Amino acid sequence: VFKYIASAFLGKDAFQGGAAVISMGLVMHYMIATGWTVLFFLLYPKLSFLRGNRFLIGALYGVFVWTMMTQVLVPITRVNQGPLNWSGAISAALILVFCIGIPISMRANQYYR
Question: Quick one: the chain helix, strand, coil %, rounded to 5?
């Protein structure tokens, strides 16, 4: 997974790399996740609808992140994309809903309360 993430910069060569490439992918992964978190926290006080149902907003944000990553950001990188696999896409979107969207929504609500 981390070699795949590093391939955004390194292209196919990332898959031949070792620990340094894996470390690069890990750092990139956490930088991207932090960026999505910061974006939500910056928008939260400005957009009143984000203060609605925390679970629904979190789920929608997770789907938004998945959509932006797969349809906007990944296509402009050097990542080799295959055809859309619906079961993989749904799994990835659900991971973002439960590991990014809902936790961010819950924490933002606590922070700004």
Answer: 85, 0, 15
Can you tell me the distance from the alpha carbon of 66 to that of 17, in angstroms, rounded to the nearest whole number? 26
pLDDT in tens, the chain (113 residues): 899 999 999 989 999 999 999 999 999 999 999 999 999 999 999 999 999 999 999 999 999 999 999 999 999 988 877 888 999 999 999 999 999 999 999 999 999 99
Q: Is the model's pTM score more than 0.85? A: yes
Q: What whole-number distance in Å separates Cα of residue 8 and Cα of residue 45?
A: 32
Cβ of 101: how many Cβ atoms within 10 Å? 28
